[in-house]
Amino acid sequence: MTSFDLRKLRLRSGDQVRERVEIELEPLLLAGQEYEPRPNPVSAELAVSRASSGTVLELAFDVSLYGPCFRCLQDAELELALRLREYQATKPESDEERTEYVDEERLDLSAWARDSIALALPDQILCRPDCAGLCPVCGKDLNVEPHEHVEERLDPRWAALNQLREE
Q1: DSSP letters spanning 49-85
Q2: Closest to 85 (Cα-Cα) out of 31, 45, 36, 125
Q3: Residue closest to 44 by CA, chosen among 70, 65, 19
Q4: Is the CB of residue 28 less than 8 Å from the CB of residue 117?
């Protein structure tokens, strides 16, 4: 877990500090599959600004997730460029005025980055936008070997008519 001590900054109203930080990320488990963040740890830029009523926190980093494609199970890579912002009031009166990532003047960078990655994910992580997936009948990769299975499924209620047609 990577955290940042906000007390060491000693900011006054109107001040801003920018720092490069290295954030350790855990693999993301999605639909029973593991997606590995790379690079890990990820290099990020943290900006902390002191306002008269609180602190504005900004985090920017680029990360890629590597894991299986949702459709064909081949290797897939998803590149994300995240630009994040949170606010922590000096004297918060409601949950909207505080961030869940600050506890006793310590900013939990790993949790903030993990949650932001999860929120930025598409519905499916694919190896390519036009991935055909796996054949539901035989399980072959349709990207490598496109094919169709021709199956005649006849309704048993029409069996007598089919028998007449064959005669």
Answers
A1: EE-SSEEEEEEEEEEEEEEE-TTT-SEEEEEEEEEEE
A2: 45
A3: 19
A4: yes
pLDDT tens column, 32-60: 899 999 999 999 999 999 888 888 999 99
pTM: predicted TM-score of the whole model, two decimal places: 0.78
- Domain ranges (residues) in the chain: 3-130
Q: Over the stretch 119-160, which tens digit does the pLDDT of each residue have?
A: 999 999 999 999 999 998 889 999 999 988 876 667 788 888
Distance CA 125, CA 136 (A): 19
Q: Report the SS3 class of residue 159.
A: helix
Helix (H) / strand (E) containing 22: strand 16-23
Token representation of residue 70: 């949702």
Please provide the DSSP assignment of 87-129 as one string. Answer: EEESS-SSGGGS-TTEETTEEEHHHHHHHHHHHH--SS--SST
Quick one: which of 86, 83, 34, 87 has its CA closest to 63? 83
Cβ atoms 52, 121 nearer than 8 A:
no
